[in-house]
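A student in our group prepared the protein record below, which I am reviewing. What it holds is a sequence and that sequence's fold in token form. My question to you is simply how this chain folds and whether the tokens agree. Do not assume that whoever made the record got everything right. I have pasted the whole thing underneath without changing anything:
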Amino acid sequence: MVSKNIINYLGLTHHYGDINCITILAHFYKQELKSNVFDNLFRTIKNENKNITTRKWMKQISLSNIDKWAKSCAKKVTLTDAENYDVIVFRSLRGDNPIHFGMYIHHMRMFHLEEGGRSMITNIDNYWSDRIHAIYRQVV
């Protein structure tokens, strides 16, 4: 069962540098799961691009760097094995850059926040499943 506290994160407005697809997951993990798993990822992002207040940082960080971060704190799982709170990293269909982050919620759904939108739970349809780079489960 998914935490009722996820309701507190629904409807938040996207704003780079404050609330975006990564920071909202980091806040959820820190507050609800008592995990700092995203701290090293933020260090990597900030080392590669000091300004994460615009979309440009997404072009600066590669999927291979995300994989390196995950090796120290998570394991890869398949979509069929995904469980609540697993982190989904989405890729561009034409490159080695991440385009989005989401959090798996039971029954092929995810919690996420798209650029210019509000945080929500949505189905993982063909559009999203075709773009999955990896799904990571935190190693405790």
Remarks:
- The CA atoms of residues 42 and 117 lie 22 Å apart.
